[in-house]
Amino acid sequence: MSGHRLLLENAQQVVLVCARGERFLTGSALRSLAVLEGASLVVGSDGLIKAVGPADVIQRQFSGETFEERIDCSGKCVLPGLVDAHTHPVWAGERVHEFAMKRATYMDIHQAGGGINFTVEHTRQASEEELFCSFRQRLQCMMRAGTTLVECKSGYGLDLETELKMLRVMERARRELPLSLSATYCGAHSVPKGKTAVEAADDIISHHLPRLKALSRKGELHVDNIDVFCEKGVFDLDTTRRILEGGKKMGLQINFHGDELHPMKAAELGAELGAQAVSHLEEVSDDGIAAMAAAQCSAVLLPTTAYMLRLKQPRARKMIDEGVIVALGSDFNPNAYCFSMPMVMHLACVNMRVSMPEALAAATINAAYALGKSHAHGSLEVGKQGDAVIINASRWEHLIYQFGGHHELIDYVITKGKVIYKKQ
Ligand SMILES: N=CN[C@@H](CCC(=O)O)C(=O)O
Ligand SMILES: [Zn+2]
E-strand spans in 266-313? Predict the structure, then answer.
């Protein structure tokens, strides 16, 4: 007789998302997701999914075996833990005052020393402990909204010392918190005061990256991705290319901001460099979309950005129709203060006209792909990490439909078969 960690019993629906080991879903495969009615799921003592299937089959298969915890899911739905593929969650210097300035454009505020530069000044002054405490609180809010894997960017330091401070804060969160993290070095998030973009790029390539490499070698830091804000007035295509190539050479996945406020040919560059993902893409070209589809470079769309900055929406429909791997992120940052992937999925459905199955795939398997982690995350399949969300509703679509209702709907959030949030 063997002991297992968790049994989720007799759910009305278990949304697997996919069931054949797919690493991402595109085009017509997004029309209907793999869903089991009246099903159960078992997580083993290693935190990995051991079995998922019809409730009676699981009951027979595991009769007489023991579980550290059993949850009766009658009348409820089980979904994979949500994956947030783009956030900026480590910072000091909130920008609530800017919310009232939304008649000025994002770039007007940026050029006037507000925006990212404002947060950079405060983040430089903040202690590591202070940054960790606010970061931990933000991650807890994300977990309560169902996120179990989150991409986290540095980029409010710009100088090496502060960038490392931010990355260390992420490293500590990886050790101390129960959700999974993908860490992104984003030292090229803005051009620091007193430098040109070329000088900033030179500094990153000759000082920041070698230091990151040395710390990674020693196992002191785990950095997964490299990012650049490729934008008119920030980093142009050439400096972006140099920085991304430098990161790629040291083994980082390329995952960067592009084609947000102006068409930059960032999508084309991402496809050419073998990027895992390009984010934003409100201004992507037709050629860029085709190139991303061909290169299996995922598009991380950020519905909160277009909504809050009143930008035009990225062309999600065209991307999906052309076979691009579309993922979603909250873009949580001091400008877009949103922790909630359920709200992000809702906004994607309304404003980008994606369907509910497309939105859920974009916030699970495809978001995991954008982080190079879809072998272990993003669907409820045997062998994957036991990360799940249980909602008190008879159809999974309620998680998207009830805008802002996730606090009421989410009963449990589970990572590696352990309950990390339970509604009181
Ligand atoms: N566009 C660049 N970076 C962020 C905004 C960061 C900030 O304004 O602090 C984004 O993805 O929206
Ligand atoms: Zn961003």
Answer: 277-280, 298-301
CB atoms within 10 A of CB 294: 12
Q: How many C-beta atoms surround the C-beta of residue 64 within 10 A? A: 5
Ligand 1 pocket residue status of 255, Cβ below 6 Å: no
Measured by CA distance, the residue closest to atom 9 of ligand 1 is 116
Contacts of residues 240-247 at CB distance under 8 Å and 24 or more positions apart, as own/partner, are: 240/188, 240/266, 240/269, 241/269, 241/273, 242/201, 242/205, 243/188, 243/201, 243/204, 243/205, 244/269, 244/273, 244/275, 245/273, 246/204, 246/205, 246/209, 247/185, 247/209
pLDDT in tens, 352-370: 999 999 999 999 999 999 9
Backbone angles phi, psi at 414, to 5 degrees: -130, 135
Taking the model in full, what pTM does it have?
Answer: 0.98
pLDDT score of 1 more than 70:
no
Q: Is the CB of 154 under 6 A from ligand 1?
A: no
Q: What ipTM does the predicted assembly reach?
A: 0.96
Q: What percent of the chain has pLDDT over 90?
A: 94
What is 105-131 written as a DSSP string? Answer: -HHHHHHTT-THHHHHHHHHHS-HHHH
Closest CA to 328 of 289, 279, 286: 279
Q: What is the spatial distance between Cα 228 and Cα 49, in angstroms, rounded to a whole number?
A: 36
Please indicate whether residue 331, judged by its CB atom, sits closer than 6 Å to ligand 1.
yes
Distance of CA 318 to the CA centre of its chain: 22
* pLDDT at residue number 109: 86
Q: pLDDT digits over 7-66, tens only?
A: 999 999 999 999 999 999 999 999 989 999 999 999 999 999 999 999 999 999 999 999
Give per-residue pLDDT as tens, 382-418: 999 999 999 999 999 999 999 999 999 999 999 999 9
Centre of ligand 2 to C-alpha 286, Å, is 22
